[in-house]
Each structure stands twice: as structure tokens, then as C-alpha cells.
Amino acid sequence: MSTSDSPPPPPTSPPPRTLPVPTLTPTPGQLAHAQRRGGRSALLGLGLVGVVALTSPVLGYLEDVGNAREELLGHLSNQARVQADALGVHLLLLEAELARVAEHPMLLPEDGASPAERALLDSAFYHSSLFSEGVALLGPRGERVWSDPPGMSLGVVPITSRPWFQRMLQRKTPTIDLLEGEGGPLVVAVPLVKEGQIKGVLLGEVRTEALPTRSTEETALFLMDARGRLLLPATSRGYQEGFAESLRPLARAPGPLMMGGTRMMGAAAWVGRSELLLVVLEEEETATAGLRSRFLRQLAFHIALLTCTLGLFLVLLRHSYRSLLEAEERLRRQETMAALGTAAALIAHEVKNALNGIQAALSVLRKTPAGSELPVRGLRSQVERLGHLARSLLSFGAPRAALRRNCEMRLLVEDALQAVRMLPESEEVELRTSLEENLTVQGDAALLVSAIDNLVRNAVEAGAVAKDTGLRPAPWVVVNLSREGTDAVLVVEDNAGGVDPRLEPRLWEPFATGRAKGVGLGLPMARTSVEAHGGSLTYTRRPLGSLFTLRLPLESTS
Description:
By secondary structure, the chain is an alpha+beta fold. Helices cover 46% and strands 19% of the residues. A hairpin with a 5-residue loop joins strand 6 and strand 7. Helix 1 runs antiparallel to helix 5, helix 5 packs antiparallel against helix 6 and helix 8 runs antiparallel to helix 9.
């Protein structure tokens, strides 16, 4: 045996070290983060429960308020109708009293008041309680003929210019309206019609206080004529402009109304045959004060009950959450031990195969004449296999920091291919390459060469297995390096049949392997190295085999 083929002296055995195995046990920071996330989820759930629990009293309160408004509007409508009917009957009584006297044949005011006519009027109306302001007999042109009291006010402007007087002359029917301006008094005018002609007018005036309408502490009454002038109250001072007009829609339908910044509920009714409108208003808050107080008590009770319930729920949830963490901790320990057992079995199997190969090569070496290359090549192959396993385990257990520098991708790929060509399996697999030049990346040459070596090595070993099993008589591996935009793209494709579909979901996990050779660290380490350089490593199933695509960003040049 030549000196160049003699095995190198055995290296000094390093001190034993514990094999690093990936563990699933969370760190304290991860546990704290999980607890905070679980706490936030629990608080969110409790908040939703609280909102749902508080929704019931709120909806009940809103329904009660709606019912109270309906009841209030019904009550106000009845009150307005009753008071309008009472006022209408009173006004009809006044009108009937005046009409009874106006039909007397002795009453002819067109030529003045005779003693007999005065006696008739004094007998009928002297200090009458029906007309609080007094009664007057007017001529056909509105002049005063007689009045009780004698100084009874008829307003400032002429009677004949007032709309109600003109309306009465035109229709020749009694009328009820305001005497002159807003605030009253109220007048009841009955024409004296003789032979189709108006010979005079009997006019009775009534003060507001004498009307059969009553306000209460809760309600307010308003009486207005067809032109929107207020009789009740006696003055509109203090109300905003257009307030009287805002009362008119209540005659069609009762409803809410804003008065002086206060929300009111109102209803209205027409007074008899007159054109007077009686409006009744009440503050909405007064009607709902009892409901609001009851709602606040119910809401306070619900909140107290919900707080106690949530407090108890939090205690139980905290206890359950701690129990869940303990169970998860036990499960992680079991998974860690299972992963340790799997890793140990894979490593032991790989070492055993290599040792069997070395032992077989030594047995052949004893019986082979000096200068034979076959046993030496077998020994080198198995030693390379053990070396690759040791390097993979060391790199996985204690990855070193990347040392960045400008690297030519073609040279990195050629370095990896040179190492792969030394494998015995490379003689059985056709290796085709197409490498583009002048593709510079910023990275650690050793880490990138190792990643590329793992990709090509896996493809070559898979091709050799496919040939040994008869799946592919002529296995091949294609390595293509090219530029795509701002990336250097390395594609490694083979025709070895592809990865087992059951293994694909765990393809990038440590110690996940479906082959008899290897421990499943090559692909995870390759992806970690590539991603540390800002690149990506992906797998694509092809009809004949596998396709791995490695992308790295090119170094920008000025």
C-alpha cells in the first residue's frame, strides 16, 4: 500500500460532550407571553359576557320608556279631548245665552237702544257670571249701543276691521275668537239677523281665568286660534319665536316637542265648532323619572351580580389555566423525551451503518494485496459519512455567527459540487450543471457552501437509492444558477421520485427523514442559513422528482 493511500493517524479523542437535542419546553419569557395572551383572551371573553348580561336591563329599560311614552301620549290625548270638550260646551252655553236674547223681537239696535231694550239687556246680562268681562250690544257698523259695564273695553282698532267680525258679517253666523290681540280676552259674537239683514251684534267677553281649563304641576295648557295667536297663557312672552306654530302638528298626531331646551310630550284637540286649538304638554322626564330610578337600581343590581360572578369566574379560570399550563408542561417534557429518543435512534443508526462499512472495508483490506484502492475508498467514504454527521450535529447544536463578505455564487456552488463528487454515490448519478457568472452576494461562504452541499448531496444520494431500488435506471441531478431580477437563484432538481407525501408537512423540521441514511438535519440547517442571509429556500414536487429553489439577494453595485 502506498504512503498516499495509508489512513491518517487517529486524532486525539476530544472530551465527551452532550449532544444538543431540540427541546419543546418553553422559556420563562414564552410562558409569560402565553399567560398574558391567555389573560387578554379571558378578559375579552369576560367583557363580552358582561356586555351580553347588561344588554337585557338596558333593552328592558328602553322598552319600558317607549311604553311610558305611549301611555303618556294617550293620557295627554284624553286630557286634551276632555278639556276641549268642556271648553266647547262652555262656549256653546255662552253662545246659546246670547242667541236667546238676540232672537227677542224687541231688540232692534239699528236706531239706538230704547228704554225697553235697555231693560231687556239689563235683565238678561246685568253682572252676569257667564261673561267675566261684560256684554255689549253693537250696531250693524260696529258702534257701541249698550254695554255692561258701560266702560267695557272693545279694543283699540275699530271692530269692523277685525277678521272675526268681517267673517261673522259674511257668514251671518256666531263666531268665537280673540277680541283683538294675543292673550285675550275671548269673545263670543252673535249677529242679530232680521229679515236676512244684520241689525246688530251681541258681544260677550270672557277672561282667561274664567274658562273651564285647568293646568297642573305636571301639565301646561295652551289655547290658540286659527292664526296661531295664544289665548292661554295670557302672554307668549318667554317663548321662542315660532313656538305657537310648533304646536299645530300636535292636532294631527301627539308626539314630542322641544320647549325652551326641554323635551316635552304633547297632544291637542279642537274646541267645539270654534277654530280654537287646546294643547296639553308635559315634560317627558317627569313621566320617565320613576322608570329611570327603577332602571338605575336594576342596573346597579345587575352590575353587582355580574361583578361577583366574574370574580368567581376569574378565580376558577386562573385555577384552570394553571392546571392547563402544568398539563402542557408535562406534555412538552414527554414530547422532548420522544424527540430525544428519535434523534438518538437516528444518530445511532447512522453511526452503526458507518461502523459496519468500516469493519467490512478492514476485513477486505486484510485479504487484499497492497496498492488496492477499493477498501481504502470504502474507508474514506464511511469516514466522510461520519465526518458529515459530526459536522451537522455540531452546527445544529452550536451554530456559529455569520461572517459576511462578498462571495461569487458560482465559486460557492463549485466548492459544494467538488465535495459532492467525492461521494461514492456520485459515480451512479449523472450531475449536470449550468452556472451563470458574476453573481455576487453578501454572506458567509462556509454557511452558504454547507447549505448548497446539503441540497446537492441529498439529491445525489436520493438518485443513488432510486437506481439501487430500480425506480430510475438512469438517475440525474441538474444544478442551475441564474439571475432573476435582483436575486441569484439556484435550482437543484432530480428525478428520484420526490419526497414522501407523508413527510412533506415536516420536511423542514429537525430529525425528520424518510431515508435510511441521514438524520434529517441537512434541510433545516440549509433553510436556516439561507434565511439568515435574507434569502429563501422552497420545495416543489415535480412529476419525476424534487425541485429545490434557493434565492439570495444580489449585492448591489454602484
